[in-house]
Amino acid sequence: MKNTLTCIVRFLAKEGKVTELTNQFEQLLSLVREKESGCVKSSLLSNKNNSQEVCLMLNFTNYEEYRKHFTTDYLKEFVENHVPNLVEKIDQELYSPIQ
Question: Class of the 5-93 domain?
Answer without folding.
Answer: alpha beta
